[in-house]
Design a protein that fits this description.
Number of strands: 0
Structural class: mainly alpha
Number of helices: 24
Radius of gyration: 25 Å
Distance between the termini: 30 Å
Order of helices and strands: HHHHHHHHHHHHHHHHHHHHHHHH
Length: 505
């Protein structure tokens, strides 16, 4: 079997694996909803492309291509972060092939090529094609337009390979976050030299706009450099994926005696304290929960710094959204996949079924207490006069009540075990059921749908009071709706337990 035949066979295997998965029907529903959301996003991108073209066409001091490539680093930065949330690393799906009599790099190469040829790399054309038709083709001709479109596709492919390298390294060690941070900082270093100043932004823009000027002249250098970088990143990616997957497979577990905190202060709270200790120790002792927890803390710090010490999100609409988003981060990292960690020992929990209700209460109290972290970090906005203290309190209460109520509904529908320590060879670390998609839309959409009309028609004070009262109502009734979640879970416990066991295999 040659490389081309092997590539086709592995492609078929991936399609069959998706179709034969236990949660295939759930995945289909989720995909339909994602397709609907993507369609709406495409319409939105088309609108943005048209508006951008109209603005660029009216500029007299700069050409359309120069303007586009001046902004290209920021577009690639956005592309990187969107991909990071949804793109799966090849190392996570090649375990079954490693011991087969095929060339050692063949499997990884096939998945890397698949990622390069993915239709996801063409989504940017929803913006690029309208822009090219309105601003480029009638000025520079068809060949320069095709050159522009091909170069952008190659840049997106390069960005996807760079993302895969970073994702595997970060999964291995969170300190590797410094790599993409320093990389994008280097690309935008004129801005960093003069934060918020016109000179910094203009210097950065002019530096990258030169690429557009080269394309206008038909200079092949940008194309050749991009192709060379794709080749370099491909071979680096291949090596990184291969070495890290073998490191994961070949690691030997060692038992070391170390100090374990007893957290005796929680003993006074009885069973509640016991289950809170279980939640804390699950985070502290296991790689995947610990990584998610640390990531949530770092992202909260980042957003809090941007909110407090810059003017980027000073508008009223921005303020409401980012304040709510900052509060919900901890919960979104953990509670959206609630019961995933417990799926590793679900049979033990079911020996005494009332354990689950105690775990729900403990999780609720723990993640309510964690809201103090973003609250404290956003206090500088109050001292600076940007936001009011009542706004922070009302949104914190709303998150503790209504938002947590939405997240805990996932305990009924989540039924895929999350690996606690396996990193590179895990099954993607997500459960793509439609309820997760619905919950995400509800968590981020409903609060703004509530607070925005209240603020517009009744003022900010009434809006914040309304959010506070809604949240407080759900906080006070938390024992009732947590029991409701527990009762609904018990009605479908056998189906869920079967799925938890199957996903552990």
């Amino acid at each position: 079997m040659n490389r081309l035949e092997l590539f086709k066979q592995l492609r078929r295997h991936r399609k069959w694996a998706e179709q034969r998965a236990l949660n295939y029907e759930q995945n289909k529903t989720a995909k339909y909803m994602v397709w609907v959301g993507s369609s709406l996003a495409i319409v939105y991108f088309l609108f943005l492309a048209i508006m951008f073209s109209l603005i660029v066409n009216n500029l007299e001091t700069i050409t359309p291509l120069e303007c586009f490539f001046g902004a290209a680093p920021y577009l690639l930065f956005i592309d990187f972060w969107i991909r990071y949330l949804g793109q799966q690393a090849p190392a996570q799906i090649i375990k079954p092939y490693l011991l087969l009599p095929i060339p050692k790099y063949a499997c990884i190469e096939s998945f890397l090529v698949t990622s390069m040829l993915s239709t996801a790399n063409l989504l940017w054309y929803c913006v690029m094609v309208p822009f090219a038709l309105m601003s480029i083709v009638f000025v520079y001709g068809i060949w320069i337009t095709l050159y522009f479109l091909l170069l952008w596709w190659l840049l997106v492919v390069l960005n996807s390979q760079w993302l895969l390298i970073c994702k595997v390294l970060i999964t291995n060690n969170v300190l590797w976050w410094a790599l993409p941070v320093f990389f994008y900082a280097a690309i935008m270093f004129p801005v960093l030299l003069d934060l918020g100043g016109d000179a910094g932004w203009e210097a950065c823009f002019d530096m990258h706009a030169k690429i557009g000027a080269m394309i206008e002249k038909g200079n092949p250098l940008p194309m050749l450099v991009t192709i060379a970088l794709i080749g370099v990143t491909f071979f680096i990616n291949r090596y990184v994926q291969y070495t890290h997957i073998w490191k994961e497979l070949g690691k030997v577990k060692t038992t070391r005696i170390k100090h374990v905190s007893r957290m005796a202060f929680l003993d006074r709270f009885g069973d509640l304290g016991l289950y809170i200790k279980l939640e804390i120790k699950t985070i502290m002792r296991n790689k995947n929960p610990r990584k998610s927890f640390v990531m949530a803390m770092l992202v909260v710090i980042l957003f809090s710094a941007l909110i407090s010490f810059t003017e980027v999100y000073d508008g009223a609409g921005y303020a409401n959204f980012w304040c709510l988003y900052n509060y919900v981060l901890f919960s979104s990292y953990s509670l959206l996949r609630i019961m995933g960690n417990e799926g590793n020992y679900i049979d033990g929990l079911m020996v005494r079924k009332e354990n689950l209700l105690g775990i729900f209460h403990a999780k609720y109290v723990f993640y309510c207490l964690m809201l103090a972290w973003p609250f404290l970090l956003m206090l500088p906005t109050v001292f600076a006069g940007k936001w009011s203290l009542f706004m922070l309190i009302s949104f914190a209460t709303f998150t503790a009540g209504f938002q947590h109520f939405l997240f805990f509904q996932m305990a009924v529908y989540n039924k895929q075990t999350m690996p606690l320590n396996t990193k590179f060879i895990s099954k993607g670390n997500i459960e793509n059921n439609y309820m997760q998609v619905v919950t995400q839309f509800a968590v981020f959409g409903l609060p703004m749908a509530i607070v925005t009309p209240l603020r517009l028609f009744f003022g900010e004070s009434v809006a914040y009071l309304g959010m506070f009262l809604i949240g407080l109502a759900f906080v006070l009734t938390s024992r009732w709706w947590l029991r409701n979640v527990y009762n609904r879970l018990m009605k479908r416990r056998y189906a869920n337990m079967e799925s938890f066991r199957a996903s552990r295999a």
